[in-house]
């Protein structure tokens, strides 16, 4: 899906890590919530409340998911899942455009 229709976008940005990661919340009529954002190169740790499906639209990252010992390379067009109530590490190699879907 290249665009979302009939949605509500929250005007205020989510700003993390001194502005190196930003996103906007997109709310759907059926209650689904996604964020669209940009990550600048760097290393970050994110906590989750709900299960997340992270789609990398463009860019290149490496991720370390809960319970794993090896970093995985993820590039534009790839997705990965993060369990609820956990945390994951991400190394952003290039400016990265992403879409995060919250499940549950």
From TrEMBL:
GO terms for molecular function: guanosine phosphorylase activity; purine-nucleoside phosphorylase activity; thymidine phosphorylase activity; uridine phosphorylase activity. It catalyses: inosine + phosphate = alpha-D-ribose 1-phosphate + hypoxanthine; uridine + phosphate = alpha-D-ribose 1-phosphate + uracil; guanosine + phosphate = alpha-D-ribose 1-phosphate + guanine; a purine D-ribonucleoside + phosphate = a purine nucleobase + alpha-D-ribose 1-phosphate. It comes from the Bacteria. It is an enzyme of class 2 (transferase). InterPro entries: Ppnp, RmlC-like_jellyroll, RmlC_Cupin_sf. The keyword Iron-sulfur does not apply. Keywords: Glycosyltransferase, Transferase. Its EC number is 2.4.2.1, 2.4.2.2. GO terms for cellular component: cytosol. The keyword Glycosyltransferase applies. Coiled coil: none annotated. CDD domains: cupin_PpnP-like. Belongs to the nucleoside phosphorylase PpnP family. Catalyzes the phosphorolysis of diverse nucleosides, yielding D-ribose 1-phosphate and the respective free bases. Can use uridine, adenosine, guanosine, cytidine, thymidine, inosine and xanthosine as substrates. Also catalyzes the reverse reactions. This is Pyrimidine/purine nucleoside phosphorylase. It comes from Pseudohongiella acticola. The gene is ppnP.
């Amino acid at each position: 899906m290249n665009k979302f229709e009939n949605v509500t976008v929250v005007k205020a940005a989510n700003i993390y890590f001194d502005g190196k990661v930003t996103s906007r919340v997109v709310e759907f009529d059926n209650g689904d919530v996604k964020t669209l954002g940009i990550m600048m190169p760097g290393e970050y740790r994110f906590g989750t409340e709900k299960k997340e499906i992270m789609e990398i639209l463009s860019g290149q990252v490496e991720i370390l998911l809960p319970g794993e010992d090896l970093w995985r390379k993820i590039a534009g067009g790839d997705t990965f899942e993060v369990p609820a109530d956990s945390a994951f590490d991400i190394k952003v190699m290039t400016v990265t455009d992403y879409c995060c879907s919250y499940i549950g």
